[in-house]
Amino acid sequence: MMEQSPRMAAFSLLLQQQKSGSYSNLLLEKSPLMQSYDARDRAFVTALFYGVIERLLTLDYNLSLYLQKPLKKLQPEALCLLRLGAYQLLFLQSVPDAAAVNETVKLANKKCRYASGLINAVLRKIAQNGLCLPEENDKLSFLSVKYSCPVWLVKRWLSCYGEDNTIGILETSLQPSKLTIRVNTVKTSADSLRRQLQDEGVESEPLSIPDALALHKLPCALDQLPSFRQGLFHVQDKASMLCALAVDAKPGHTVYDLCASPGGKSFTIAETMENSGTVCAFDLYEKRVCLIADGAKRLGLSCITAKPADASVFDPLRPKADRVLCDVPCSGLGILRQKPEVKYKDPSSLQQLPKIQKAILDCGAQYVKDGGRLVYSTCALDPDENEKVCEAFLQSHSAFSSVPPLPELSADCFLTLMPHKMDCDGFFIAAFQKGETHD
Domain check: are 391 and 243 in the same one? Predict the structure, then answer.
């Protein structure tokens, strides 16, 4: 079978994502199409795939200017190709306009010949006129189209965080995130790992967080590096690292991570505990539990035990813990750089989340020893999922008091990490102390 062109691969992936609603990062990681390409072609497919999803509303606005019928009336294959071509014309300066139009029409001739004339005409109009946006005096529409973010979400962020923060969040959502890793301090040090990475052809730089590095210019897939296979690090965003540090776990502690998959926070917690004590990493699904166990094994973190469990259901047979982390299921509106499709969710589908989040936090509280700490976190940027859940929790749990989760970073008890200010995922962290501290 002949190898597909990178554009054909991007088209196939986009069509699959459009039909299935799968998470973009998982779809790309699991795609067999990507395995046959060299690094340059993989990067091109990735740029096209993520770029179209990130800029979907901007692309659709520009396409609609030259179409006589609504976009939703188009066949999925035709709409997908229009978006793919328009993205190259409007946002990929490395691709000549002629190549963007001609290569997309070639794909149309193979996949939807009936629409090739329409696709050719519309893309030529876009090449001629360039990027178009609504008038700036219509702030909501302008910001929505410019940053490809639904009006309801732009309006929500403006109300909650103000215009400067909203624009900062929106701008950051369209920028690539750094590849950041947490050094496995049970096996090595940051300086030693940097030297080994350099020998492996990887550039790295230290971050402001201890034992954290950003990686650049990988010569191969990350999991092919000897340092990865030796378990010297795991991939983790700065915000997740800070969340794990907010747990404040000490060697010998018992820690429960109630919603642990894929395990990054459990790994960092175990490393800060010097692999001494017990980290119980729970998740609802067996497949995800296996993912945690495999990661712990690679890292040599023997203090981690991974088990299936429903985080919202209290188990009275489970012993009390010194620390409990509730990194709850959430809207994911803080991680748009990694999962851009999240912003296109129907907002009504998010309304039940605070109830679930509160139930998990209530359950987690029952496991905390006197003097212990309970940490609540989300990768959401929305007060309904964050501050309001915590305020409701405090009203119904008099034994707990709110404390700053990261006093060296901020005196705030409810800490929102803004992506444009911290160069990390959008994140929320809160910490609660039960009774008197005995540490």
Answer: yes
Q: Identify whether 426 is part of a domain.
A: yes
Q: Are residues 300 and 428 in the same domain?
A: yes
**400 and 253 in a common domain:** yes
- Amino acid identity, residue 59? L
Confidence label for 5 from pLDDT (cuts 50, 70 and 90) = confident
Averaged confidence pLDDT in the chain: 94
Structural domain of 162:
139-173
Total structural domains within the chain? 4
Catalytic residue among 243, 379, 413, 424: 379
> Is residue 426 domain-shared with residue 332, that is, in the same domain?
yes
- Which of 39-48, 83-92, 173-182 has the least mean pLDDT? 39-48
Q: What is the CATH number of the domain that holds 227?
A: 3.30.70.1170
Sheet of 179-183: strand order equals 203-206, 212-216, 179-183, 233-235
Active site (annotated) includes residue 379: yes
Q: Which residues lie closer than 8 Å to 238 by C-beta, 6 or more apart?
A: 180, 207, 209, 212, 422, 423, 424, 425
